[in-house]
Request: fold
Amino acid sequence: MMQFPPEDISAIRDIIKRSWSKGLQAQGPYSASYEFKLYGNPWHGQGSDAIPARIIMREILSYLFSQGWILHVNTDVSKSEFDTDSLIFRKQQSSPPSSEWVAISFNQNDRLRLIGAPQGLLADVRVLLKEMKLLQAENWKDRNLDAWEYKLHGRPWFATGEDTIKTRVLLLRLLETLERKGWSVYASIDQSTRGAGLETDSWYIIRDKAWVEGAAVFHR
Reply:
């Protein structure tokens, strides 16, 4: 963390302790930054670390957003094979409205995982996948962590040839479904160090808690 005030660094420390069950190994100044070292491998993001890694990022984004730190850009400025995105925030004067957050990850070759999603959103995604004849199976990946997983036909995250277009159509339809229900993609982040060609972005979506389906307001 660079150029954040002490109170935000302290809050992020608490989020790590609360969200990362393996715990905080070390912390302290590192050059011009403040660094937290976690036990385990959250930025490898596989196996038992995969879901908690998305949860901790979701909770960090949610906290910063609530304090007026709005993500300005996530960028990759490294040529390292095992790089991840850097996240750059801009502080706004007024805090944004209270919002709900969901993490979406694209796992293995054919899994779509929603973490922290309400039942209504899970149902909407299910309808979409059935309409596109892509839904093979679905179930809890981890009920305790509120992670629901859909298994898709084919290999959409490792597609080749014309199947790459089908994957893009799926993403477009997924975005349409999210937007129709008040959700928008706040960030699409490469947070994995697995190496070139082995990782996908994770999506973090947001919705105003005051959003009501079908509501309209007329101002005069």
Remarks:
- Strands lie at 24-30, 33-38, 69-75, 86-91, 99-107, 111-115, 135-142, 147-152, 184-189, 202-208.
